[in-house]
Amino acid sequence: MAWTREQAAARAAQELKDGFYCNLGIGIPTLVANYIPEGVNVTLQSENGMLGMGPFPYPGDEDADLINAGKQTITELPTSSYFSSADSFAMIRGGHIDLSVLGAMEVSEGGDIANWTIPGKMVKGMGGAMDLVAGVKRVVVVMDHTNKAGEPKVLKTCSLPLTGAGCVDLIITDLCVFEVREGGGLDLIELAFDVTLDEVTAKTHAEFANKLTTAA
Asked: Which residues contact 132 (CB under 8 A, 6 or more apart)?
């Protein structure tokens, strides 16, 4: 049985370390904030100019002036700070953010990521995606293993316009976890509950090595 969105987000939250400054992309990555491990102190950064985001508000408690980069309403903490978008991107481009958790439409076996546009479809812009994959110390992708048509999203080569090349460190899907080797290449290191190696192989176009601690 594949992981749910929440379970995939919880697995991604295991990549958070105490003291990290972390940026969460839109979609499944925003759920990671709900699963920060107990005892781990993480500061969430939003590229629209906020450091130290609180949890999502309860219905009726929303403040339209408090939003993240994905236009979702959020809450502030006693330690929250606000600054210009220019300062925010200086943090990102200067290498001061430890981890970015992003969604993707495609990822290649070389660690390339495509997550900002599909040619011919309306798009508001790339947002901070290109800066995040270029300036952040570690990039984790969380996404469904296949698209809505059932086609693989983990590929030998991305077919969509790239957001960044060779920048992804870890891929977490609803089926499994791939680690991207330095210089390219994928290692399968974890399977979701009751998911088989055969299923992952059938739904993955990229080449990968089976590095599971228990044979699947």
From this structure: 23, 25, 47, 92, 97, 100, 102, 139
What b/e string do you get for 114-136 counting C-beta neighbours within 10 Å, with b at 16 or more?
Answer: bbbbeeeeeeeeebbbbbbbebb
**Closest among 140, 55, 38, 51 to 99, alpha carbons compared:** 140
154-155 vs 176-180, strand pairing mode: unpaired
Q: pLDDT for 170-216, tens place per residue?
A: 999 999 999 999 999 999 999 999 999 999 999 999 999 999 975 44
With beta carbons less than 8 A apart as the criterion, state whether 115 and 157 touch: no
Catalytic residue among 15, 38, 47, 62: 47
pLDDT in tens, 16-38: 999 999 999 988 998 999 899 99
For the chain, what is the radius of gyration of the CA atoms? Answer: 17
| 179 belongs to the catalytic site | no
> What single-letter amino acid sits at 43?
T
2-23 burial, b at 16+ Cβ within 10 Å, e below that, comes to bbeeebbbbbbbebbeeebbbb
pLDDT of residue 62: 95
pTM score, whole prediction: 0.93
Residue 69 to residues 54, 124, 204: CA-CA distances in angstroms?
14, 13, 31
- How big, in percent rounded to 5, are the helix, strand and coil portions of the chain? 20, 25, 55
